[in-house]
Amino acid sequence: MSSERYSLFSLLRESLRGHTGWKPAWRKASPQAAYDIVIVGGGGHGLATAYYLAQRYGIRRVAVLEKGWIGNGNIGRNTTIVRSNYLLPGNTPFYECSMKLWEGLEQDINYNAMVSQRGVLNLFHNDAQRNAYIRRGNAMRLHDIDAELLDASAVRAKLPFLNFDDARFPIQGGLLQRRGGTVRHDAVAWGYARAADKLGVDIIENCEVTGITITNGRVTGVETSRGPIAASKVGLACAGNSSRVAAMAGLRLPIESHVLQAFVTEGLKPFIDCVTTFGAGHFYISQSDKGGLVFGGDIDGYNSYAQRGNMPVVEDVVEGGMALMPRIGRARLLRQWGGLMDMSMDGSPIIDRTPVDQLYLNAGWCYGGFKATPASGLCFAHLLARDEPHEVATAYRLDRFGRGAVIDEKGMGAQPNLH
Amino acid sequence: MRLNCPHCGERSLEEFTYRGDATLRRPAADASAKSWVDYVYLRDNPAGRHEEYWYHGAGCRAWLVVDRDTTTHRVHSVRAAGSTSENTRLNHEHA
């Protein structure tokens, strides 16, 4: 296969050889005529799905089709946060499964993904929020997930520079998940791509799916910009564009595509040692290992495929930042960008079969897809291989909207821009 | 992106609230559960021209129908929802 095992020994050997022996991390595969499983979308979820199909379920005649290049979509556009601090029964086991996979990921795929369990701290600013976080923390602990309630003095010891005595939104404490943190997002894509490739998966870049071939109600392959490819099963993992691809199979989804912006400042000396979220506005921030402050807030709130947003949300995000930690006003913004979110109607994802035989759907990740990458891949691989939902993803059904079994973590109702 | 309100002129986005696809039609009260589920949850979500409702809450408080391209954010037209809208026409047909 295309690359050998990374280790301290290989690093030393290459250091002595002037780094002339490193090989590409994955092959530039060309499409074959047929596969057992074709995965549409070479983002984090598609690559993770391919890896777990090969590694855990022994299915290696797999192709991942990516219209651009690996790492170009949301896997390279997020704010790198991982956590499993969910409340609802449908979500909690799934995100904890993901958290556990993150904890073992680097050994599993032999790739340094810079998994950093620096903690995720959700601040609260009044009694009602405190009660809500106590409830959430208790729900987590009942699922054997770590959660710790910090009072204001404990938060102050950790992050002394926050705006504790704001007249409207004083910081009263926070819910801390110490096992949460950040993961280097590009490395997740590259690591899964390399590991899947090593197991024989074809990763085919610059290959856009232009049609889904259906014969007698059953999927038999896809049309692509590089020719037709036959497949026994097709899995869609193209969040952001799920509606467009599903429409090729005649499906309408409970999804709107929205834009979410993110921001990073110039590199600064380390001063924020955990992911911190503001409870009185939508603002979350962490500091990358390179020193940049990485932060974001709400989606813009209107349908968009443009991968860029507008100024009102930029203003809203930096207002939140200034309210929480006034010192970031001194930092200079280095970059700002947008990604496409599959905003589902209840704010939760879909990992399920579709009404078309042998066509499977992994979609609706809203703005929370990155943390879910490993579990999404594992559960989608399980569904594709066994034709039944993985035990931690049984709630993510496509028909849950019609059954009234929505998973509305924020209790907002069927309007995507409120989630 | 700015919206040219027919009553107030061109205004910034902060003044508006978005309410999604304006081409959806409310089913009759006794329509099947499936058509209600489709109406509440399913969307075409097109990449390209999209007719959508915006509410000018910090201006004239009128509901507007905006024809906008979701791939470029270019606004093709803004008109007042209401008298000329499909809803009203359909309601007359049902009446």
From TrEMBL, chain A:
Family matches, as InterPro entries: FAD-dep_OxRdtase, FAD/NAD-bd_sf, Rhodanese-like_dom, SoxB
Pfam families: DAO
The Rhodanese domain, residue ranges: 37-81
Cofactors, names only: FAD; FMN
GO biological process: tetrahydrofolate metabolic process
MF annotations from Gene Ontology: nucleotide binding; sarcosine oxidase activity
Keyword Flavoprotein set for record: yes
EC number(s) on file: 1.5.3.24
Top-rank lineage group of the source organism: Bacteria
Catalytic activity of the protein: sarcosine + O2 + H2O = formaldehyde + glycine + H2O2; sarcosine + (6S)-5,6,7,8-tetrahydrofolate + O2 = (6R)-5,10-methylene-5,6,7,8-tetrahydrofolate + glycine + H2O2
One cellular component term from this protein's GO annotations in UniProt: cytoplasm
Keywords of this entry: Cytoplasm, FAD, Flavoprotein, FMN, Nucleotide-binding, Oxidoreductase
Protein name according to UniProt: Sarcosine oxidase subunit beta
Location of this chain's protein in the cell: Cytoplasm
Family to which this protein belongs: Belongs to the SoxB family.
UniProt-listed Gene3D superfamilies: D-Amino Acid Oxidase, subunit A, domain 2, FAD/NAD(P)-binding domain
Automatic annotation (TrEMBL), chain B:
Domain of life: Bacteria
Segments for region (Disordered): 76-95
Gene3D superfamilies: Folate-binding superfamily
GO molecular function: sarcosine oxidase activity
Biological process, per Gene Ontology: tetrahydrofolate metabolic process
Pfam short name (any one): SoxD
InterPro entries, A to Z: SoxD, SoxD_sf
Protein name: Sarcosine oxidase subunit delta
Native source species: Acetobacter estunensis
